[in-house]
Write a structure and sequence with these properties.
about 140 residues; alpha+beta; Aldehyde Oxidoreductase, domain 3; four-stranded antiparallel beta sheet; four-stranded mixed beta sheet; elongated; 3 helices
Length: about 140
């Protein structure tokens, strides 16, 4: 069992996230990529900005992985999250999960992003042409 959790200031390479969880014992690899979208609620978004309490976030990733393993047959988990400015179209979060079977990989990946948004001390700010707002996790 070898997980990888990172907070990055530079762009995320999804292929790197996938490579971190490859396992010859696993027949399934599920991924989630969260990207900065151009519009939200009818407003144009210029960019996203993320603030992270890094040590707490990395600890929460470890707790999240432990909890996922309690519910799903998961081999490896990788979570990469951006900090700072994320331009439109770029990846802000990458989650990759490997498991022997697809059902566990898919379920764990879906649960991981939902829990991340609720539990991990990462704050997102949407910047618009005429201002900005902090977005609560959901």
């Amino acid at each position: 069992m070898s997980d990888r959790f990172r907070i990055l200031d530079d762009p995320i390479d999804p292929a790197d996230s996938v490579a971190a969880v490859r396992d010859p014992e696993c027949g399934a690899l599920a991924t989630f990529l969260g990207t900065a979208r151009r519009h939200t609620e009818g407003r144009e978004v210029v960019r996203l900005e993320y603030e992270v309490h890094e040590s707490m976030a990395l600890r929460q990733f470890e707790i999240l992985a432990r909890d996922l393993r309690a519910r799903h047959a998961v081999a490896r988990i990788a979570i990469d999250h951006r900090r700072g400015i994320v331009p439109i179209g770029e990846v802000s979060v990458a989650i990759a999960v490997s498991a022997p079977r697809r059902r566990d990989a898919l379920a764990a990946c879906a649960e991981a992003i939902e829990r991340l948004k609720q539990d991990v001390p990462i704050w997102k700010r949407e910047v618009f042409p005429d201002g900005a707002r902090w977005v609560e996790g959901s």
